[in-house]
## 1
Amino acid sequence: MSNVPNAELPKTVDPFRLAEQNSTLEGFVPVSALSRFAEVILAASSSEPAQQCQVRLTFGKDEERRRIVDGELEAEVMLECQRCMKPMAATLESSFRLGLVTTDEQAQNLPRDLEPFLTEDFSVNLWTLVEDELLLVLPPFPLHERSDCQATEVLESFEPDPDEPDPAEEKRENPFSVLADLKKNRH
Ligand SMILES: [Zn+2]
């Protein structure tokens, strides 16, 4: 994503008016202001620059005259590696296309490539929109590259999560057991 201006993304806008004007909004959202997202990543230490999400949103209409928003975002954040529990740097990126709708019925009728963006009045909070998109691209199980991970030596003894389905249950679908069967049959 090319550099966006070093200014905060406007927070509250009228998306319908922006679509009429074919406006593009660019800027950053401070991650510390996104409470749901800030809770699931590691906070930057006081010696580091504040974490920011760079955002570009282009409002307009598609060939069917639907009001749409094309968005791109990028954020450098620290996540907790789920193998060694140490911090790891990650770049979260997303690009998305939203269809502006005012009713659930309109949302149902959108084509599949448009994500519904439901707004009941002429004012939306773009920071909340950015937060929702960030949560969507957050990896559920972040892991260092093996060579960078401080827990490499315990890889093999990694304990399964007790909340996970019974491994015996999963065995049937394990692609490696299929592979093992193929090898056996070759002899
Ligand atoms: Zn690790």
## 2
Amino acid sequence: MTGTARLAGKRALVTGAGSGIGRTIALAFAREGARVQSSDIDLDTARESARMIVEAGGDAVGRRCDVGDPDAVRQAIADMESDFGGIDVLVNNAAWFPARAPLAEIPEGDWEKCLAVNVTGPFLMSRHAIPVMAKGGGGSIIHIASQMAKVANYGQTHYCTAKGALLMLAKGIALDHAGDGIRCNTLSPGGIATPSMIELYGTRENAERQWGAPMHPLGRLGRVEEIAAGAVFLASDESSFMTGADLLIDGGYTAR
Ligand SMILES: NC(=O)c1ccc[n+]([C@@H]2O[C@H](COP(=O)([O-])OP(=O)(O)OC[C@H]3O[C@@H](n4cnc5c(N)ncnc54)[C@H](O)[C@@H]3O)[C@@H](O)[C@H]2O)c1
């Protein structure tokens, strides 16, 4: 990697890196010189992202981790220490998408799983990464939230509640660990054309027509690269005076 790489020398862990936004962030980080642990509950896709990075000339390892499992989280951080000697950047991107339902019809198990993966997961990852980050002089933690952290949506109270909680999780970490040299921010995408999004609408065209164009003043869904660009900024020293903040990249969804 060149000397101008924006993440040169950084060691990054990206959860949910086997697909969509997480995969694109992992690839973008590696292009900018970071060494990357591509982590996912699906080992095959985690390894596939790592293979893509290595083929492009970067340095990455693919590993399985269920972010809701405390033992697996501890192991993921221990692997960062044994593979790379520490951790400078953590991206809490993994998420579970519950079926839509009005609140009175949400199965209790869906509520619990949504909070376990989408809130407790980022808590656990941060909880165990922070001491290692602090030992290395600091770092940057990024929670991938959503425009749904700011506005509710019909049938998505469980998902919106979880995403809203990430904004406060970031502010709390920002206060408690600024003295350790650790910054923590959220990045909130609007509708992005990822495999999960397209699956929800059947086809890319349907997703654009039913969700992209009507809901986003810019008239379309976002691209994964547009979110990865924000993550590179938050991971890099370019955002060195930014902590406890939300970087909203939503095509104007919440402007109305
Ligand atoms: N796509 C969008 O429109 C959109 C909008 C706003 C926010 N987001 C957020 O962006 C992030 C990525 O979404 P995406 O659209 O790329 O999703 P995706 O489904 O393409 O990728 C999510 C990845 O997380 C992994 N994962 C699921 N549960 C896990 C667990 N318990 N432990 C570890 N990994 C797990 C999946 O295997 C998958 O690889 C999520 O946090 C999502 O909430 C997405």
## 3
Amino acid sequence: MKFFIHTFGCQMNENDSEHIAGLLAASGYQQANTIEESDVVIVNTCAVRQKSEDKLYSLLGRLGTLKKTKNLTIGVAGCVAQLQRSNLFDKNPFIDFILGPDNYWQISRIISSCNTDKFIATHWHNEWKEIPHIQTLRENFTSAYVTIMEGCNNFCSFCIVPFTRGREKYRPMNHILNEIKSLAQQGYKEIQLLGQNVNSYKAPKTGKDFVSLLKEVDRIDSIQWIRFITSHPKNFTKEISAAMKDSEKVCRQLHLPVQSGSTSVLQRMKRGYSRVEYLQIIEILRDLMPDICLSTDIIVGFPGETDKDFQETISLLQTVRFTNLFSFRYSPRPYTAASRMKDSIPLETKKKRLIELQSIQKELQLKMNQSLIGQTMKVLCTGQSKKDPKIFSGRNEGYQVINFRSEKDVIGKFVKVRILSCGPYSLQGVVIQ
Ligand code: SF4
């Protein structure tokens, strides 16, 4: 039997799909390259934005048509599955099972019994459920995701995550460290610690915090780069900045979602920090690590966002100079506090603001990238061009995309690359060693 997993959304979902794939492989299933050649298709969904939910419904339409001509088992997993549960069956009766994030470990049993018993995602659990890490089928053999916590207690007013992933639960520290040690033995060079709010990590039983975890991970031989995502400014302490600076392995790179540059919007978003407080964190980070690369998330058109609020967001972009930006138009999500506010910004204004924001960021990125031309940087190579086998791709410590020429195959290796040219979204160069 062959399976195919289509993943929408963030790194947490990608890592969940790797767990599901590993569990299926351990039960004798084989991974297929396409939907058409599989017997089981699982769609791992994202509910954070309406747009990704819309893409799910279009994919389900395609799968429903395919099922008329082929014996196919179809499952829906992830956040939309957890949120919609039986509604998904009602609207798409061809679906065979619906799996929430807390049910993945049961995947093989659910598939084998779904002819007689359609499974619907259960409510989330409060306790961590460990999936043996040796059963994770990873997409990448150089850089690995390692989940350290799940869920969120913050209830930002726009965000659906606390309703799909439940409250925060933390993975025991010894399980995290054992997984990373095993990855190091397998030759992984980089690990990315994952969670909705990694900075609030608290080890069950011992209560050890995120800084303690970082220090423990730092001691593991062979892992050379450590990253973590997602951080919340409210929980981003001076101690975390200091731990980053003191480590030679924690990359000089941080994704710190700001969401808006206006304090009044941040208050309505229930983010728990002001513009000034966000900028103070950036100042501390840059004092300690002047070369740190920062990226962020921004939502435009949040209910009540005035032109002045929006201009404050633009000025924050220009002040911080992020190396990467993930920006979105606000769309109300069910159950959230913001969905009960009047969605007061016309669609055209949201679109205009998003275009303006992205074009300013594009210019800033281009200028920052141009200043790197001529420099030599360490790059972890993770891919090779299909068209030209001498062109490789990877990321530098700042998590910027680098495409480069090398005469030798360097996949999975650290190389030194001299930057020769750039665009706003990537750098191009050549291996010098
Ligand atoms: S911190 Fe806010 S935005 Fe992030 S997952 Fe939690 S509720 Fe959502």
